[in-house]
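Checked the freezer inventory, then went back to the computational side. Two predictions to log before the end of the day. The first one is the construct we discussed on Monday; recording sequence and tokens without edits.
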Amino acid sequence: MIDRMIKIPQGIILISGPTGSGKTTTLYTLLSEKNTDEVNIITIEDPVEIKIPGLNQVQVNVKAGMTFASGLRSVLRQDPDICLVGEIRDGETAEIAMRAAITGHLVFSTIHTNDAVSSINRLIDMGLEPYMVSSALVGVVAQRLVRRICTECRKPYEPDEYEKEKLKLEPGQKLFKGEGCPECNGSGYKGRIAIHEVVVITKGMKVLLDKRASEEEMRQLAVSEGTQMLQDSARDLVLEGITTVEELNRVAYTID
């Protein structure tokens, strides 16, 4: 779904999630895929976290009047093919980013929301018109990081009733956890892996957007069109023995 989104020549793609959920790493990965000699990519960041050869990277400096909004205005005069705006924090930045997306640029940015669907409504709450969001937005990726079970001390165990019910396990199905070893400093975890919730703005989603449908309606449509919710993405990793129920509850707990 993400590959489909980044092939589109114009529009805006948002990555959402809390601080420390790997949003910037994902954005840099997507930019690296698009980074060729023929493509002019300009980024506006606060701060520039990773320097990538071939990209024109600009750092925000509020004291000098260089904000995301003013920087993006200047950048658009240099006819970039792709822009990265570090974060959409206010209505002004959101509006300029949307206008850039409508006028033939591919724009990447991040936004602080809990899931992919609520990011769409956050843009409207910032003062953007629904028609503008539906015509500019290509898709939203919500992301979290969960810890991987250490492969050196990973052991199967019998799940309790809560885990059986939460994960809808088959009778006799086992789960995994790390017992703790010198390799993982006794924590039972080593490394991290991302879980994702990807919402593509399809024709059906645009219709819902234009009529200001509720988040629940949008969520139901997204699931019917192939979106996997964060909790389901984490559940798959638990069943595969890559992470634990504790990690699922930590990053994607919902009250059903």
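The second is the one RB wanted added to the comparison set:
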Amino acid sequence: MRRGALSVCVLVLFAVLAAPQATARRLTGSIAASTARESALVAAVNSVRTLHLLPKLRVDLRLTRAARFHSRDMLLRDYFAHGDLLARMARFHVRGHLFEENLAYSSGVMSARTAVADWLASPEHRTILLDPTLRRIGVATPIGAFGGFARATVVTADFAR
């Protein structure tokens, strides 16, 4: 390969990697299967809802994509905030009349029990967890460098009616 052709290839590769769409695709990741931590979180949420005689939530793949995107974005950009939930739901084509979100993070690996217990201890988060009109859930529990910690967990739980 000629030297000039190589620099053009590198330049094109840089442009592709720098494109916002490439970032969005990289952040959304595969949706094929829930991780063990994600499954445990959904089970813990549904266990609490069952104890309160509420219907279990079913996993929604679009909500899961939105939750994964948000948690990974927070890890990547080192922030902790809900952001524009409605815009995110539209971006991932989530249908519904009501959307809610609970976030949590830990300086280490956060268990599903801990996340749910923390949410139950907070009146605002508890209201969301125990909302009888919610029917669907999508969660993300990635671990990575965050807030000065090498292995932090950043949890997003998105809910829809």
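For RB: The first helix runs from residue 3 to 18. The chain has a mean pLDDT of 85. Let me know if you want it refolded.
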